[in-house]
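Summary of Year 1 activities. Much of the first year was spent building the evaluation harness for sequence design. The harness presents a backbone, in tokenized form, and records the residue chosen at every position. We chose the following record to illustrate the format because it has been used consistently in internal testing since the harness was completed.
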């Protein structure tokens, strides 16, 4: 396993997971791309206009983030993304990226296949800590729900939300329920669904909606490979009110989002990862993240004297993660 210690593998997560040996990882901590929300820039477009952005430029807005305030930095959001065919120039997307499936069912199926491989590489007492956010079924016509999230389709009556909603049983503006769909599908596939942890964001993304609350939480699911698994509750115990004794950590974790300035905006907060690593592994264990991004899971693992395996599709993010982790890798050699 030395060749797989403190390494970042560049490529398709599912295919690279298949190259790892059985039961080589103690815990997996990850945040996959959320369904239908953004494009991480890994596509190759075949045909069409090579100068086309393959996004709906008309959806730019300087009002809110969910109205594409940071359109360029976010690589297009929601309904600005063309998932399979560019409606502007006719180019066809070729991409291994997850999150841009046409339906929630396809996304869930891909998650099940990927985490089936994760379960194989986990030790029998291993755990999976899975962070997922949700999205909304698209709104058509003149509805101005600026806080919406989209499934990426155009407003053509033959291909828009009307047919989409009837196909998958969702109505326009329905909350899709992606986190629980994935959690229940993993449970049905053999995982033990142990807990839903609420990540309460103290600085949530602003939304200009007026018919629901602004979303300020996401889920972190704790799943295990077996009925009995490694879990060090003392490592993450909280101080009680008397500030002397400690109590078992509770299931609502309050912390802000904290972006990394060199990476894409959707960065895994270090304080969200740390309790998962401390509870789910011991020193020198291997921590896996198959959606490594800018390498925050690896960073926290090294600081906690663990090792890591990261998998990332986008080579630009791999370069960012390697640069970010290099100083800590040198320190880790001294452990």
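For this record, the design step produced the sequence shown next.
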């Amino acid at each position: 396993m030395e060749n797989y210690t403190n390494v970042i593998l560049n490529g398709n997560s599912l295919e690279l997971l298949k190259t790892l040996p059985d039961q080589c990882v103690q815990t997996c901590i990850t945040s996959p791309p959320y369904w239908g929300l953004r494009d991480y820039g890994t596509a190759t477009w075949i045909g069409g206009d090579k100068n086309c952005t393959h996004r709906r430029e008309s959806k730019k807005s300087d009002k809110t983030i969910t109205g594409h305030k940071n359109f360029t930095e976010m690589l297009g959001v929601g309904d600005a993304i063309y998932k399979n065919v560019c409606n502007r120039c006719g180019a066809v997307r070729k991409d291994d990226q997850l999150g841009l499936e046409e339906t929630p069912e396809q996304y869930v199926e891909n998650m099940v296949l990927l985490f089936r491989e994760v379960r194989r590489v986990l030790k029998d007492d291993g755990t999976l800590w899975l962070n997922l956010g949700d999205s909304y079924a698209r709104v058509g016509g003149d509805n101005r729900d600026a806080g919406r999230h989209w499934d990426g389709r155009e407003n053509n009556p033959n291909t828009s939300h009307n047919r989409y909603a009837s196909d998958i049983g969702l109505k326009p503006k329905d909350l899709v329920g992606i986190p629980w769909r994935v959690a229940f599908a993993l449970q049905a596939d053999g995982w033990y669904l142990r807990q839903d942890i609420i990540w309460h964001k103290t600085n949530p993304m602003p939304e200009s909606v007026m018919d629901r609350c602004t979303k300020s939480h996401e889920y972190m699911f704790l799943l295990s490979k077996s009925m009995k698994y490694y879990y060090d509750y003392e490592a993450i115990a909280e101080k009680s009110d008397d500030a002397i004794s400690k109590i078992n950590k509770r299931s609502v974790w309050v912390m802000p989002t904290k972006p990394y300035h060199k990476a894409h905006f959707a960065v895994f907060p270090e304080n969200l990862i740390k309790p998962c690593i401390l509870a789910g592994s011991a020193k020198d264990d291997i921590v896996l993240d198959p959606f490594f991004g800018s390498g925050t899971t690896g960073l926290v693992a090294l600081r906690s004297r663990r090792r890591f395996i990261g998998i990332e599709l986008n080579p630009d993010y791999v370069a960012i993660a390697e640069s970010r982790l290099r100083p800590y890798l040198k320190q880790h050699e001294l452990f």
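The domain at 2-34+105-135+176-332 is CATH 3.40.50.150 (Rossmann fold). Quantitative recovery figures across the full test set are reported in Table 2.
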